[in-house]
Amino acid sequence: MSQTSLGTTSVSAPSPSETSPPRRRWWILAVIGVAQLMVVLDATIVNIALPSAQKDLGFSDGDRQWIVTAYALAFGSLLLLGGRIADLFGRKMTFLVGLVGFAGASAIGGAAVNFEMLVTARAVQGLFGALLAPAALSLLTTTFTDAKERAKAFGVYGAIAGAGGAIGLLLGGVLTEYLDWRWTLYVNVAFAAVAFVGGALLLTRTVRDKSSKIDVPGAVLVGSGLFSLVYGFSNAESHDWSSVQTWGFLAAGAILLAAFAWWQTRATHPLLPLRVLLDRNRGASFLSVLIIGAGMFGVFLFLTYYLQQSLGYTPVKTGLAFLPMIAGLMLASTMATTVLIPRIGPKPVVPVGMGIAAAAMIWLTGLDLDSTYTAHIMPPLIVAGLGMGLIMAPAMSLATDGVATEDAGVASAAVNTMQQVGGSLGTALLNTLATSAVTNYIDGRNPKDPVVLAQASLEGYSTAYWWSAALFAAGLIISVLLYRRGAPVHNPESAPTVHM
Q1: Residue 5 forms beta bridges with which residues?
Q2: pTM of the entire structure?
C-alpha cells in the first residue's frame, strides 16, 4: 500500500500479480483524482461557509471550531486504520464504500437543522475519508507499474492534492455566495457520484492481503487519545483551564497516547511501527508537519472570520483573498524541493521557514478595522505562504524518505495523520484562546455596543495570531535541534520517493 501527501509520494512495490498495467489506467487516474479532490478540498471548502452556517444554525464562537475539527480529527485519527482495512477487505470495495459513505454524510450535513447534526455529519465525513484516501492511493500504485508512467500519474495526483486547498476556498466562496452554505456539502454528492460510477466500471478487484490484521487496541488507543486532547483544549473556553473537564481530558489524552506508543512495540501488526519515527530527520519532519497543520488551519479559520465579519468581504472575495498565500506556498515548496534541499539539506531551510511564518503571524496581529487588502493583508499573507512552503515540502518529503518498502504506506499515512491532527489540536487550542480573549475584552464594557464587539473580535484574532507565532517559534527551535546537517542521502534499498 502507498500514501501521498501534498508534495511527496512513497510508493511500495506492486505484487507480481499486479505488474500488468490496466488498459484504461489513465481513466482510472481521472476517477481517483476526482475522489482525492473531494477529500482534500473538504478540509477548506467549509471554512469560507462557516460564518453563514453559524448565523443560520445559531451556534456559538466557542463551538464553531468543531465544524473544522470534527472532520480533521476523524480523518487524521482513522487514516492508519483505513489503510489496514483497505488491505484486509480489498481496495476497490473500500474505495467504493468510502465514496458512498462520504456522499451520504455530506448530504446529511447539508440538510443539518442544528449544530449537533452538522458536527456529526462532518465527523462521519472524516471517517469515510479515512477509508477512501488510503484505498485510492493503493489503487494508484498498483495501476501504474511502469516507473515513468507512475511518476507522471503521481505528478498529476500531487498537483491535485496541492491545489485542493485553494480550490476549496474558491469553490466554497462561490457556492456560499451564489447558492447557500449548504451547497459546500451537497457538492460532494456530485463528486462522489462521478467517482463511484467510474470506479465501479473501471476498477478491478485486487488481491486481498490475508496476512494483514487490524490492530484494534491500537486504533482505540490512538483515536480516543487524540479526541481527549482536542476535547480538553476545547473545554478550556467554557470550563476554564482549572476544570477537571479540561485538564482531566488533557491528562487522559496524554496517557492514552503513551499507552498507544507502548502498545505499538508489542503488537504483532502495529498501526504505526515506531521504527518509522525514530530517524532524526523523519522525527523532525513529523513534528514540523504537526506544527504547520496547526498554524495553517488557524490562519484559514480566523482570517476568514476577520475578512467576512470585520471587513464585510463576500465569501467569493474571501476565497480570492487567500490566493496570494497559496501562490507563495507553492512557489516556495517548488524551490525548496528542487533547489534548496538537494544542495544544502533541511537544517537551514525548515528553520528559516518557521521563522518567516512566525514573523508573518506577528505581522497579522496589526490588522484592524481600517486595514486595506493591498497594503495590510496581502503582504503578510504572501510572507506566510513563503514560510509555510519552505516548511511543508521538505518536511513531507523527508517524513517518508528512506523508509523500508514495507513501511512506505504507513509512513505516508502517518504524515497525513500528523497534518490533520495538527489542524485539529491547533484549531481547538487557538479558538479557545481567541474566544477567551474576546470574553476578557468585553468584561467591564458594554456588550451591546457594536464598536466594543468589533474591537473584541480583533482582540480574539490577534491573540490567535500571537499563539500561532509561538507555535512556529517552537518549531524553529525543534527543527534546528533535530534535523541533521547536509543534504539527505537516499538509501537505494528503501521505498522510492517521487517528488512533485
Answers
A1: 8
A2: 0.77
**What sign does the dihedral 396-397-398-401 (CA atoms) show?**
positive
Q: Which long-range contacts (CB under 8 A, 24 or more apart) does 432-437 make?
A: 432/62, 432/233, 432/234, 432/236, 432/237, 433/463, 433/464, 433/467, 434/61, 434/302, 434/460, 434/461, 434/463, 434/464, 435/61, 435/62, 435/237, 435/460, 436/236, 436/237, 436/463, 437/462, 437/463
Give every CB contact of residue 220 below 8 A, 6+ residues apart in sequence.
none
**Within this chain, do residues 302 and 352 fall inside the same structural domain, yes or no?**
yes
Same structural domain, 108 and 36: yes
| Tens digit of each residue's pLDDT (9 = 90 or more) over 29-69 | 888 888 888 887 877 788 788 888 988 998 887 777 788 77
Identify the bridge partners of residue 4 per DSSP, sorted by sequence position: 9
Question: For the CA atoms of the chain, what is the radius of gyration?
Answer: 22
The domain boundary residue, chosen from 268, 287, 305: 268
Cell numbers given for 167: 480550490
Report pLDDT digits (tens) over 413-427.
777 778 777 877 887
- How many domains, the chain? 2
Instruction: Output the CA torsion sign for 165, 170, 174, 176.
Output: positive
Q: CB 18: neighbour CB atoms within 10 A?
A: 16
User: pLDDT tens-digit profile of 277-330?
Assistant: 778 888 888 899 889 888 877 777 788 889 988 999 988 898 889 889 888 888
The 10s digit of each residue's pLDDT in 458-495 is 999 999 999 999 999 999 999 999 888 866 665 544 44
The span from the CA of 292 to the CA of 329, in Å, is: 12
Q: Quick one: pLDDT at residue 405?
A: 60
Confidence of residue 188 (pLDDT cuts 50, 70, 90): very high
| CA angle in degrees (0–180, nearest 5) for 45-92-33 | 35
- Is the domain of 455 the same as that of 368? yes
d(CA 478, CA 472): 10
Q: What domain range includes position 469?
A: 3-214+269-499
What lies within 8 Å, CB to CB, of 189 at 6+ separation is 103, 106, 107
Which pLDDT does position 13 carry in this prediction? Answer: 43
Q: Which residues contact 69 (CB under 8 A, 6 or more apart)?
A: 230, 234, 423, 424, 427, 428
- Per-residue cell: 231: 476535547
Single-letter residue type at 122: R
- pLDDT tens-place string over residues 68-124: 778 877 887 787 788 778 777 777 888 899 999 999 999 999 999 999 999 999 999
- Residue 133, Cβ density class (10 Å: 0-12 exposed, 13-18 middle, ≥19 buried): buried
H or E stretch at 314: none
Query: Do residues 178 and 3 make contact, with C-beta atoms less than 8 angstroms apart?
Result: no
- How many contiguous H segments (helices) and E segments (strands) does the chain have? 17, 3
